[in-house]
């Protein structure tokens, strides 16, 4: 590596910055241009650093101490970009070639990065303008690193470190240096979401304060002023957010060379310089002092604080030891948290179990008491029924004996009456009637006893049924055993209580005697006083013994209660398992029944489908037959209309020719009657009888000729008064209603025959109306 190449690289980094950045002049980072006014010291420094850069490998190996001293004095601004890359070995990293590809990708942290960019160096010329070159390259570097290290992603404090790098070099080189810092300078552990490394640094720094500044440490403890309240930003940003930028840049030079050690040294030096002021302040005052006073103390330059920092004793071995202690403490805390969590879970489960067992115990006790009460009631009812049954049996036996006696008496009387049948009766009628009355009473008593016996038997059956509904003997025996155990433990508790009461009475007696002895102690000799003290000690020992025995009794009583509960719960669990098996069997039975019912339902659905198909076929057949009937009726109606037309035409022709056509009309009437009879038969077969399919036949003849009116030669028609009246009303138009001898049937069917003959014109028109249709012939 040659000096010319490094200088060329540095010139490229300078050209990549904004012109305003070159003219900022606010710090050593924004340095003035290299002009001919450089002093000889600066020229010597440039020559020296140029030689170091040119011979970097050799200087790094052989003159490491001299290199550290030079870095502590400060790296020249124009060499800073090159030296920082050389110090962290960030030159020629393979990840530099991936930078352009990373910028094309999308990061999940882009919104957070965009939000925090405006807060990074808000007063610096290179970053203060929105969407400026500085903000854009800062966004690119942060986005690229969030894609490279997805575990860390983006953390707000890291933007200040990247911003400082971008003030010195182009974004690709700044990205490589930042990656190296995160990997080799413990920054990655600091910026992880857990921030475990930050906790370790706080612990180590607090131990250093306790060792070097014990008074200040005690003041911090008294004010509850934790180390993380003021020192966390020191470690996360390497003083970039706490000190002026020139001072922070000088400290960052040493950080690039020596690592986090400089942060511990500078932090402790700052506290040493401000110890007197901090001890006099409270928490709020100390916070204000760290935020406003300390930064202005360093405006004169970083040399003073750096010199004080290297006077602080820093022991690397002790720091390793503190790291091990912190790791051990954190491990124990994690284990304790896990154990506490486990114990809390167990405690919660035990409480739930205790609540459940208490509820079950109360339920079991209620059931036991209820069962005992029911048993007592049933036993009492059973005893009463048995006593009544015994009374009824005794009465029945007495009545039976009386009946047998009566029968025996009757037989004796009958035997006595047989030899004296022909003689005078031995007994009078009154004695016979008396005997009959006694017999009737005996039979009534027997019937009553039989009824009472039947009632007693019914009661016994009812009681037996109710006994079957009660718990079986095994469950009752178990409950009785549990009750006996409870009573035994209760008796033991009562016995212990009596013993304790006796002991209390004995102690009271001893105490009274002790009081009586100690009443005149001040008059007794020293020996007696010593004896009294021994007696007092003996009394106190006995009291403690009584207390211990009372506690022992209480513990035993509690243990007996727990054993009782355990036994009760075991019995209850056993019964619950039996009930569960019974329910499982019932579920299986119901499942089988459900399957059978499902099969039956499928069969019913199939039969219903078959019935529906058959009904549809029958309906179609009925509709086909109905259509055939309708067609036949239409044909018959057509024939009737044709015959009517023939009849009317023949009738009119007979009137015109003055001939008698009665025979012809009668033939037509016969044919019409036959056709009507067939129509009635068809109507009887149809279901739709409400609609009339035939309304009648209407024939109207129109004549156009002279004014002479014509009348038929038919006598019946001439004698019809209706025809004459119609002629008078119509005024020259003839409307003929022939009387064919069967007028009733025609009127019932609603048929009518009309004939109209106009007086003018020689043209004739015949119109026939039937069933809503119209036929016309000319």
UniProtKB/TrEMBL annotation:
SUPFAM superfamilies: Ypt/Rab-GAP domain of gyp1p (SSF47923). Residues 333-457, 490-685 form a coiled coil. Residues 757-778 have a biased composition (Polar residues). SMART domains: TBC. Residues 708-717 have a biased composition (Acidic residues). Keywords: Coiled coil, Phosphoprotein. PROSITE patterns: TBC_RABGAP. One of its GO terms (molecular function) is small GTPase binding. Signal peptide: none annotated. PANTHER family: EVI5-LIKE PROTEIN ISOFORM X1, RAB GTPASE-ACTIVATING PROTEIN 1-LIKE. This is Ecotropic viral integration site 5 protein isoform X2. It comes from Parambassis ranga (Indian glassy fish). The lineage of its organism: Eukaryota, Metazoa, Chordata, Craniata, Vertebrata.
């Amino acid at each position: 590596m040659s000096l010319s190449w490094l200088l060329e690289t540095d010139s490229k980094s300078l050209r990549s910055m904004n012109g305003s950045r070159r003219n900022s002049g606010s710090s050593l980072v924004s340095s003035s241009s290299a002009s001919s006014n450089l002093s000889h010291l600066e020229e010597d420094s440039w020559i020296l650093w140029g030689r170091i850069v040119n011979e970097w490998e050799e200087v790094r190996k052989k003159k490491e101490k001299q290199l550290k001293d030079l870095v502590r004095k400060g790296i020249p601004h124009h060499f800073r970009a090159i030296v920082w890359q050389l110090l962290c070995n960030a030159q020629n990293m393979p990840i530099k070639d991936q930078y352009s590809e990373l910028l094309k990708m999308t990061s999940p942290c882009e919104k957070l990065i965009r939000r925090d960019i405006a807060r990074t160096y808000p007063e610096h010329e290179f970053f203060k303008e929105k969407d400026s070159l500085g903000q854009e390259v800062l966004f690119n570097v942060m986005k690229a690193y969030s894609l490279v290290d997805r575990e860390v992603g983006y953390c707000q404090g890291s933007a200040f470190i990247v911003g400082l790098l971008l003030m010195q070099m182009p974004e690709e080189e700044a990205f490589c240096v930042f990656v190296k810092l995160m990997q080799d300078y413990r920054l990655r552990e600091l910026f992880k979401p857990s921030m475990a490394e930050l906790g370790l640094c706080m612990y180590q720094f607090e131990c250093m304060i306790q060792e070097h500044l014990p008074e200040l440490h005690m003041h911090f403890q008294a004010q509850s002023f934790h180390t993380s309240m003021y020192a966390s930003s020191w470690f996360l940003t390497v003083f970039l957010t706490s000190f002026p930028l020139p001072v922070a840049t000088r400290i960052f030079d040493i950080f690039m060379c020596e690592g986090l050690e400089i942060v511990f040294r500078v932090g402790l030096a700052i506290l040493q310089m401000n110890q007197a002021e901090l001890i006099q302040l409270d928490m709020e005052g100390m916070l204000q002092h760290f935020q406003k006073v300390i930064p202005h103390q360093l405006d004169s330059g970083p040399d003073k604080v750096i010199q004080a920092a290297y006077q602080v004793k820093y022991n690397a071995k002790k720091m390793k030891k503190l790291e091990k202690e912190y790791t051990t403490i954190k491990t124990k805390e994690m284990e304790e948290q896990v154990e506490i969590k486990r114990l809390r879970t167990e405690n919660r489960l035990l409480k739930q179990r205790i609540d459940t067992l208490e509820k079950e115990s109360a339920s079991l006790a209620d059931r036991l008491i209820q069962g005992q009460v029911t048993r007592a009631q049933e036993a009492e009812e059973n005893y009463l029924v048995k006593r009544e049954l015994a009374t009824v049996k005794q009465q029945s036996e007495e009545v039976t004996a009386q009946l047998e006696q009566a029968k025996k008496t009757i037989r004796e009387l009958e035997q006595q009456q047989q030899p004296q049948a022909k003689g005078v009766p031995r007994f009078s009628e009154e004695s016979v009637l008396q005997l009959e009355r006694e017999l009737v009473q005996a039979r009534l008593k027997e019937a009553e006893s039989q009824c009472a016996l039947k009632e007693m038997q019914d009661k016994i059956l009812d009681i037996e049924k109710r006994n079957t509904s009660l718990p079986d003997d095994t469950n009752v025996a178990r409950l009785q055993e549990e009750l006996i155990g409870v009573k035994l433990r209760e008796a033991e508790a009562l016995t212990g209580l009596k013993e304790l009461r006796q002991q209390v009475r004995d102690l009271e007696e001893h105490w009274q005697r002790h009081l009586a002895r100690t009443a005149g102690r001040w008059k007794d000799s020293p020996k007696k006083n010593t004896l009294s003290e021994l007696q007092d000690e003996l009394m106190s020992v006995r009291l403690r013994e009584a207390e211990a025995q009372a506690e022992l009794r209480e513990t035993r009583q509690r243990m007996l209660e727990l054993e009782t509960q355990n036994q009760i719960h075991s019995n209850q669990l056993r019964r619950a398992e039996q009930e569960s098996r019974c329910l499982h069997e019932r579920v299986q039975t119901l499942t089988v029944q459900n399957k059978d019912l499902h099969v039956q339902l499928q069969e019913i659905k199939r039969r219903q489908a078959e019935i529906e198909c058959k009904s549809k076929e029958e309906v179609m057949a009925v509709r086909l037959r109905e259509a055939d009937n309708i067609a036949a009726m239409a044909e018959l109606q057509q024939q009737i209309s044709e015959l009517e037309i023939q009849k009317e035409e023949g009738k009119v022709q007979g009137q015109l020719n003055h001939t008698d056509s009665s025979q012809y009309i009668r033939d037509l009437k016969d044919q019409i009657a036959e056709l009507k009879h067939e129509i009635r038969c068809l109507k009887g077969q149809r279901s739709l009888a409400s609609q009339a399919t035939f309304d009648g036949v209407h024939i109207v003849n129109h004549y156009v000729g002279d004014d002479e009116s014509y009348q038929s030669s038919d006598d019946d028609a001439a004698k019809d008064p209706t025809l004459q009246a119609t002629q008078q009303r119509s005024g020259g138009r003839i409307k003929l209603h022939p009387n064919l001898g069967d007028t009733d049937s025609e009127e019932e069917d609603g048929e009518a025959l009309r004939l109209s003959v106009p007086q003018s014109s020689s043209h004739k028109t015949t119109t026939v109306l039937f069933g809503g249709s119209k036929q016309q012939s000319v």
